[in-house]
Amino acid sequence: MNLGPVETLPHRTVVSLSGRLDTLGVESIETAFNAAVVARRVDAIVDLSAVEFLSSMGVRMLLTAAKALQRAGARLVLAAPGPLVDGALRHSSLAQVIRVAADRDAAAAWLDGKAS
After folding, report:
1. Is CB count within 10 Å lower at the N or C end of the chain?
2. The CATH number of domain 2-103, selected from 3.30.750.24, 1.10.357.10, 3.30.420.40, 3.90.320.10
3. pTM score > 0.85 for this model?
4. Residue 116 in this model has a pLDDT that exceeds 70
């Protein structure tokens, strides 16, 4: 699992993940992911376009980050999941809790209040 690149904008963090977001993948990036996304306490977009697999451990990591951001008054949006990852998000009901956008632009538009 790889984390990066990370874009730190004044009002938003955009991070890309690639590889398998399974137990080993989460263990390898969770600390860095939380430092990049949660610690800033601003809205975040997580680009999942290069994630090949999403397990329950990956779901937990994303949900934990979303809840932490929510407590800080910020939001997390997942962007561009491939078909397998999108299916896992829907099967786990995570897509009912965290906004899932078709791509980064749609995620940014939603955060900016320009999309429903």
Report:
1. C
2. 3.30.750.24
3. yes
4. no
